[in-house]
Amino acid sequence: MSIVISTAPAIAGWWAQVKHDLRPFPGRWPQTWRIAVLCALMTLVSMSFQIPEAVLSCYVIFFVMKSDAAESTILAVALVILVSIVVFILIGLINLSIGSPAARLAVIASTSVVLLFLGVASGLGPLGGIIALVIAFVMTLLVHVPFGELATRAVLYAWLMTSAPMALVISFSLVLGRPPQAVLSDEVARRLELAADGLQQLASSAQLREALSEGIAEQQKRLQWLALFHLVAKRKQQILAMAVIQSYHILLASLSWAEQSAIATERERTQGEELALACRAAAQQLRSWGSGSELNISVDGADYIVGPLRHIAQALTALRADRVPVGFSIPSEKSPFFAKDAFSNPIYQRTAIKTTGAAILCYLIYSGIQWEGIHTAMITCYVASLGSSGETVNKLMLRIIGCLIGASLGTILLVFFMPHMTSIVSLMAAVLVVSALAAWISIGSERVSYAGIQIAFAFLLISLQGFGPDVDLSVAGDRVIGILLGNVMMYVAFTQIWPYSILYKVNTSLQGLEQTLGQWQQVSQQDTVNRVVYAARAATELAEVKYDLSLASLEPVSLHVNGLNLPHSQQQLAALTQCFEHRVLGLAAPS
Predict the structure, then answer these.
(1) What is the dihedral of CA 220, 222, 223, 225, to 10 degrees?
(2) Angle 445-450-455 from CA coordinates, rounded to 5°
(3) This prediction's pTM
């Protein structure tokens, strides 16, 4: 009984967090249905033109399809260019290695280490892992195509496996994608509406804090797309940039007000209601993109009591189109292509080496026992590239859960529905439904997103076996075994070989957060723009370090050596959290 009592609160808390992460939020459904439709269309294209490994074509869509059309298009074009370069190089490498298994393994190892390193230590991100997967997959196929001409054709098919879905993404984004200016206007409007809810005590402090933790980085990125592609006039870009800053400023002040509203006077409550109405009016004007350059909220800040309410009134006044300075832009730091410690921190090289080693070992296992059906083990290693030990344990759980869900759905499809499917359309419908479920989960927070990717991966591996509806449970079983083998290999590699505690990352993040708070402190109170930029950065860093620190408890205590101390890191985080609330929100004096 004591065990039940001790575990029940933890399970209840975990389930509450899962439900929270799966809840709808603005923008989640539009991105979900777009990913699902693209996967269904890619299924049609793969089956119609007999492009092999449709699962990989659908898989890359999950990484490239973003919330606005500009970012999706840029990522798709970048991937096609990179894969085209790699294919050109591969054709030369094939002629050198087609007759030598050792040479093929050398090519896989060298290219994987380099690309996986770039994936974790540079701005290339997930594209590095995707390209490494394509190269490794093609090179392992050479044992079945011993002639140079056939091998070259196989490489071109690999290019087609990647380029075809990217062509769909680009076309879909241009026709049915959400323009970045519309996404940006909606995001800023939602922020103003949430601030209004806070002023009217319709939103909790937790909701306001969660919105603040998102920062303004995504909005800054969309402003860059607007300028790069000249999607709107420069004056509108300036007005939207000011709206990003002032809406976040309003949200900060509304949280301060929400925390203090219990002791507010009647006059302050009345003024809060007035400002809430003004926030909603501003949000409505922003959503009407045609009048986006005519924001004309009329609020006199001098009429409001000193404190959060006056800050909100002044911010609303600054939103007026005639108050935005000509040439206004949000100051931003240029992110270097490589991480600051890319060549000094061994974790990046070790991550690339461990992932490559696990993938090659899986390849040697299924080749040695001549069980090609579990080749998904090698693919899984690239899909499930991990980081610290804490992240490994957390993501392994999510991926195994996602694998079991996806495999179950795939098996149900094969047993109960596939025998009755007579056309590609019915298979497309199945892919559409399950891809929508997987996309909905993958678009959520990092706490659940990996499960969504694995659901799609496992389901597609089982359901897209050939070039049409196919019923073969033995193939389904082999692919599930391959996925689980790949996950186990990654778990062993990342927990037993060069284990890396997440506390290293936490301590670095804590130093960065402290620096950001110091920069905020140095900015003049009259410089609202820079104060908001640093406040948004601090809020985002604070949320990230809290999440990373929560994963440290999943690691063995033996990793916490050489200056790593979980209680000390928790104390530092508590002190910086209190400092953030005191300096930025003005809620409580630090101890």
Answers:
(1) 130
(2) 125
(3) 0.86
